[in-house]
Specification:
The protein is of the alpha/beta class and 470 residues long. Helices cover 34% and strands 23% of the residues. The protein has 16 helices and 19 strands. The chain has a 7-stranded mixed beta sheet. The protein has a 5-stranded parallel beta sheet with strand order 9-2-1-13-19. The longest helix has 20 residues, at 450-469.
Length: 470
């Protein structure tokens, strides 16, 4: 890199963009590099989907409420920000799945791994005897001879049968990713299972041998858990914002387009008519927005829009004695075969210390999934009424909540459909060809989770630095 001052713009103020901007400034300071970083966010708040409300002793998450930090991406960032001590782990509790009007307990190890309790599924009332016999056939079924991407639903039906997919796999996915399992990519979402099939042949044998769970992708210890921060996930966002140099973040500005100039220079066109001439750009907005910024590339412009699910969250507080059933539950997932409109329910105060005052229960409910998104379009009053009806049937709650807070993610959950990884790779290659020193990162590309977005933001920053150095 020459001694002339370089300018890099990060588009989007979610966790990916904030991590990218922080890493750029941190590495520039460490190596005494003359780089100016500007983060442009179209809204008046940063954090993207992360949105914590602190109210009357309650800590309420309108967006995601925790993360599963398999490779310590969040912890490493928190350590650099000196807030690692603020990280907390979830409390133990029971997990249920609702099928019809009934709730069935499943081993928590199915989600996180780390225990041979996976065999407890074979004694669960969730699966019928014939369904269990079919699932056990995984021990004898040969591995696929084809090396191609396939839908999640197809893969798991082939291994475990229809009932396990409908009563177990689909509810957990819908309550987490709001996805349609007959379109979501196995290769992009759960490559560890494809790997297990090829190496161990039987998924059951592989899971038990490697102590893997549904959400993790490598052999684990007994200590894996969900995590968050004492003051909610916005703790990380607020600390990142405070760590950036004054004047870095520009809110309420929207990037209209990115234009390629001579000598790898780029021009950023802002919606207020102003422009910025820069040396590098990291775009962290959803792909459908990024696509419009790079319309000078015919390949990017003609790329198919990325599908995304519209979902919502509803957070309610009740007095503890107003919840009559399942007092040891931490979370409930809901099957499409149930009679409920919600897709999952988490007892936040049981799962986390300090998120509600003593004597109160804080419930966090997901609504909406692919093929069932109309509920999110209802008014707050209608959504609250529908959720309360479900909670009365499910938990025996007849009381009026202390409060009800509705959050919506319009087209907020990217759907990694079959072929996602190959499409993403081709797209990034085209962007590199048409727009040198422009990078794409975020939940639309290489992982939906908060740790994956942090990893993408960090990697994009390091790659831009390498490109500018060259």
């Amino acid at each position: 890199m020459t001694n002339s001052r370089r300018k890099v713009v990060v588009v989007g103020g979610g966790i990916t963009g904030l991590t990218a901007a922080f890493t750029l400034q941190q590495k520039a300071a460490q190596s005494n590099l003359p780089i100016e970083v500007i983060l442009i966010e179209s809204s008046l708040r940063i954090g993207g989907k992360i949105d914590t409300i602190r109210k009357d002793g309650f800590i309420i998450e309108r967006g995601p409420e925790s993360f599963f930090d398999l490779k310590n991406d969040v912890r490493n960032l928190a350590r650099e920000l000196n807030i690692e001590h603020e990280m907390i782990q979830h409390n133990d509790g029971k997990t249920y799945i609702a099928v019809g009007n009934d709730l069935h307990k499943i081993p928590s190890s199915f989600l996180l791994g780390g225990s041979s309790e996976l065999t407890g599924l074979m004694t669960s009332s969730l699966i019928s005897l014939s369904g269990k016999i079919r699932a056990a056939c995984d021990l004898f079924i040969g591995k696929s001879s084809e090396h191609f991407d396939e839908p999640i639903g197809s893969f798991f039906r082939r291994r475990f049968g229809k009932e396990v997919v409908e009563n177990l796999i689909e509810p957990v996915l819908a309550g987490t990713f709001a996805g349609d399992i007959d379109h979501l990519s196995m290769e992009a979402m759960f490559p560890q299972y494809k790997h297990l099939e090829m190496v161990e042949r039987s998924l059951i044998k592989g899971l038990l041998k490697n102590r893997q769970g549904f959400y993790n992708s490598s052999p684990t210890s007994e200590n894996l858990c969900y995590e968050t921060f004492k003051g909610g996930l916005s703790t990380l966002v607020e600390t990142l914002e405070a760590a950036l140099l004054p004047g870095t973040i520009r809110k309420g500005m929207k990037v209209d387009s990115v234009e390629r100039l001579r000598d790898k220079k780029l021009k950023i066109h802002i919606n207020n008519g102003s422009t910025l001439e820069v040396d590098g750009v990291i775009i962290t907005t959803p792909f459908n927005q990024a696509k419009s910024l790079l319309r000078d590339s015919s390949v990017v412009r003609m790329a198919e829009p990325m599908k995304a699910a519209t979902i919502g969250t509803v957070t309610m507080a009740f007095k503890a004695d107003e919840i009559k059933k399942y007092k040891q539950a931490n979370q409930i997932f809901v099957s499409r075969k149930s009679s409920y409109s919600i897709t999952s329910c988490t007892f936040a105060n049981r799962k986390w210390q300090g998120v509600s005052p003593d004597g109160y229960e804080l419930l966090r409910i997901y609504i909406g999934r692919v093929g069932d998104e109309s509920i999110v379009e209802l008014s707050d009053y209608e959504i609250t009424k529908t959720v309360l009806s479900d909670l009365e049937k499910m938990l025996g709650i007849k009381a009026v909540p202390l409060f009800s807070i509705v959050g919506r993610w319009q087209q907020g959950m990217p759907q990694y459909t079959v072929g996602h990884n190959s499409r993403t790779q081709l797209l990034k290659e085209e962007v590199a060809k048409s727009f040198p020193n422009v990078l794409l990162a975020g939940s639309s590309y290489n992982g939906l989770s908060m740790p994956n977005c942090i990893k993408q933001g960090r990697n994009a920053a390091l790659e831009i630095l390498n490109q500018l150095h060259e």
